[in-house]
Design brief:
With 164 residues, this protein is α/β, with parallel strands linked by helices. It is 36% helix and 21% strand.
Length: 164
């Protein structure tokens, strides 16, 4: 044996085997990619939900009015607020802003075929009645109006009277 044959570098042998492994992996990836190209992806689009009746929640606070349109189970279909309709600052708390918010939410709900609703009003803000007028203006038939504003039955204990 010659001197060259005896001194083979084991690191070079490892490199050769790893190169073969990398080539095999690359070839298998190409084959898999070719398999996936044959099958086109099918995207199923669900039909748009049609809801003829549901509930409308109007939360009339001192600073904003929030109108939420839901179906009978309570899943939200559309919503709008005085701020979302473009009013800023103290103008959000006006009755006109509440009416515009209600009209905007009703318009979005009409795209689902929404026609009749029970209205649940919460809060003591200025937009309570005007929001209802906005819903009527958009053609939503109101079946019933419920006031669900939380009222304390005597509530928390009063603070003690201050002495001078």
């Amino acid at each position: 044996m010659t001197k060259d044959e005896k001194t083979t570098d084991p690191k070079k042998d490892e490199k050769k085997t790893t190169d073969k492994k990398v080539e095999d992996k690359a070839a298998s990836k190409v084959e898999k990619a070719a398999d996936t190209e044959e099958k086109p992806k099918v995207i199923k689009r669900s039909k748009r939900k049609t809801v003829s009746s549901g509930r409308i929640y109007v939360k009339a606070g001192f600073n904003n009015t929030i109108v939420t349109v839901t179906d009978e189970e309570g899943r939200t279909l559309a919503w709008s607020t005085s701020g979302a309709t473009g009013f800023k600052g103290s103008k959000k708390s006006t009755p006109y802003a509440a009416q515009m918010a209600a009209e905007s939410a009703a318009e979005k709900a009409r795209s689902f075929g929404f026609e009749k609703a029970d209205v649940y009003v919460t809060g003591v803000g200025h937009g309570r009645e005007q929001a209802l007028r906005g819903l009527i203006a958009q053609g939503i038939a109101i079946k019933a109006i419920y006031d669900i504003t939380p009222v304390p039955h005597n509530g928390c204990r009063q603070p003690r009277v201050r002495r001078n």
